[in-house]
Amino acid sequence: MGLHRSWVDRANVPDCPFPLNNLPCGVFSTGADAPRCGVAIGDFVLDVAALEAAGLLTLPDGPLLDVPFWNDVMEAGPAVWTYLRDRLTALLAEGSAERKAVDPFLVPAADVTLHMPFLVSEYTDFYAGRHHAFNVGTMFRGPENALPPNWLHIPIGYNGRASSVIVSGTDVRRPWGQVKGPNDDAPRFAPSARFDIELEMGAIVGTPSEGPVTVAEADAMIFGYVLLNDWSARDIQAWEYQPLGPFQAKATATTISPWIVTRAALEPFRTPTPPREVPLLPHLQEPGPMLYDIALEVGLTPEGGRETIIARTNYAEMYYSAAQQLAHHTTSGCPMNVGDLLGSGTISGPEKGSRGSLLELSWGGKEPFPINGGSRSFIQDHDTLTLRGQCKGDGYTIGFGDCVGKVIPALAAPYAR
Ligand code: MN
Hints:
Blueprint: E1 25-29, E2 36-41, E3 44-46, H1 48-53, H2 71-76, H3 78-92, H4 99-102, E4 106-108, E5 113-115, E6 122-126, H5 130-141, E7 157-159, E8 165-167, E9 172-173, E10 176-179, E11 188-191, E12 195-196, E13 199-205, H6 215-221, E14 222-230, E15 232-233, H7 234-240, E16 254-256, E17 261-262, H8 263-266, E18 270-271, E19 291-292, E20 295-301, E21 308-314, H9 322-330, E22 340-343, H10 358-361, E23 369-371, E24 374-376, E25 384-393, E26 396-399, E27 403-408
Parallel strand pairs: 6-22, 8-16, 9-27
Antiparallel strand pairs: 1-2, 1-5, 2-3, 3-4, 6-7, 10-11, 12-15, 13-14, 13-22, 14-16, 14-17, 18-19, 20-21, 20-25, 23-24, 25-26, 25-27
Helix pairs in contact: 6-9
Bound molecules: manganese (II) ion.
């Protein structure tokens, strides 16, 4: 399947991240306007809320788009997702009879502010990258015990914080916390000195569930995907994580990219998980390819400096797919809601340049890595971290929009009033 041609400027350029094949869902505003739903196409955002108000797009039980989130559309169900995609494709296709009517609803992307694209009902983060888990386990426990005994049988996860999920472009303040070095007698309360990123994909649940679901049902429940940066304070994490897992180390912020790329847009890029090292129990086996071939990279830009690409990898490196994670999440009977966000876990490849965290790139800070004009072990104040992702089709690209965050200095003293 090749490029679907559009009458919109630049949408047909092979490296444009937002061709007609993509149609990702975001929330935007211009000037003092209220934030509302929009869809990226070429160099524009299509004001689908205004299109709906003008009667050019009629959704069952609408209006659904004149709100600053896509949850209502997700809640309307998969038939409406398909109808919306088909209708927008028809309106924007080359040769569309409705071009003249739709054209006034295109807003130049350069003029918009992007907001959180959906209301995050809950956030769960996993640890499902084989290379990442092995690298971190080696650093924390040694190579013999790198993978915990459960790792090859279940996708390990923890319940994170929906309240601190933020959209790309929002600054992230370096956190304070309890830290204790291996040679310290007692912990100290201090700004994190080992603040880090985790390169992940986020899957967004669009269909709710009650009770256990199969992996195939779980796949069908996913509305779309975003890039996700799980900011992590490694010094706080190392002290707090046993026995209940990460807590404050991961609670400062989680940044997502501004556009939800739908499962429908990713369909041509499906790819299977890597071969199993031990067979999975039947309820977690994949009935078909449920990962995606998404090329990923991380850029680090110091204040006033030039960006260095510090990692390149691919979502296809994950050991477990989002569908397997979601199916596992429901085994207990745990209900899943519209707007549930699942972080994949850090996506690292086998080579040094494919590691999705600074912890791994600098091997726990022991091997600082070079950047333009310096080196890094962990993030310094005023560094900007940018995650990028794209799928390469035949003559077109599916982009996610950058997932950007700049780290600003810790508060001088958090309890001073
Ligand atoms: Mn994570």
